[in-house]
Amino acid sequence: MNSSKLNSILADRRDEYLEQLFTLLRQKSISAENIGMEDCAQLVKGMLDEAGLNNTRLIDTGGHPVVYGEIMKDPDAFTLLIYGHYDVQPADPLEEWNSPPFEPTIKDNKIYCRGAGDNKGQFLAQVLAIKTYLDSIGELPINIKMVIEGEEEVGSRNLASFVETNRDLLKADLVYTSDGPMHSSGAPFVLLGVRGMLYLELTAQGADWDNHSGNKGNIVPNPAWQLIDLMHTMRDRDGKVLIEGFYDNIRKPSEKEKELIRNLPFNREQVAEQIGYNDLDMDGETYYHKLTMEPTFNIAGFTSGYGGEGAKTIIPAKANLKLDIRLVVDQDPDDIYEKVCNHVNKFSPGVKVSRIGAMQPSRTPAELDVVKVVTDAVRTSYGMEPVLQPSLGGSLPDYVWTKILNLPSIVVPYANFDQGNHSPNENLGLDNFFNGIKCTCQVIHELGEYA
Q1: Strand 362-363 relative to strand 66-71, pairing
Q2: Which residue in 47, 270, 368, 394 is deepest, having the highest Cβ count within 10 Å?
Q3: Nearest to 297 by CA among 322, 321, 325
Q4: What is the pTM of this model?
């Protein structure tokens, strides 16, 4: 690949490419609130057209549409399917933003705006890479298909059915995603999977309304205590989940995956500072094993009674607890949901269990040749050794590729580690944006050489 010509084109088009990104960022696309979704989908389609993709269209999903485009060099050639999402999180709380959340603002070599890192800046880097590659080389060495969905921030609730329905359209050899932050050390990531998730809400009801805690104390039950007592039956003091069968079906890491975990870079002090927890006390192998190979059982929220200033002496009528359960291959959210319900029915049958959302875990074998090809391309592009990690701690709808289409799937994040995705002052480094374009070009080139 002619890197000097590629760099020259990027230098000449720097302002042009930034303005395209700013146009995309200014267009609101808040899926949770259905704000600007159709307009943003049309905007993305136009950007695919402009980049040189063919057969671009919006495909109905029953929710927010998927934007699709392709460049088919040869039906028998290697085909790369690129995935991203154009929807963003709400900007709340607005008062914590240092600049307007939907007006791109450059400060300290970073672009501050909702969606800058998650995921508009990252998937646009891939789109612009295709345009740049075509203009610098002349043609692509492989086929490319792009799927940009509009519901990732609300759990990708229609993506699986979209993939099931469009199996023939989405035939490919590899799925490539750029989402999330780079490694805390500043090195590029190559991620081979994600944890799944099951999000539940537990609701306990006491009296029909709040009661005076003195006049009705010891008389009216407190539903908050009911949930606290239930939690003690579900998890012990050492963090072990006590729900029967919770740890069934967990796939043991391969020897290659164990080797990767042992060799991952880890600086305890740096990580402790970055997460705001100075009492972190574990070595690197333990840290990464817990992060990638073990499920979690997390209380994400607990609401009951009075939470305002001063005192209000009541026995609350209702208590709500939200559980965020991260799952690893081969745990099944449906199976875990059933086991949680059975446990609640056994220990606290009056508690209602509501299923809010779920996503299956996913993992691509580290031993595949194509993993080495992409890793080599990332290394060449960034000029440094990438961090090859068997799984991401968080969740993406990666399973639709690995379990429905039976394809290998690789995630290479382009955003800076401190991108602040989902938070006020979300940002994307200027260098990260343009390096993402270069990296995508290198991946395309080396997959062509491999094919």
Answers
A1: unpaired
A2: 47
A3: 325
A4: 0.89
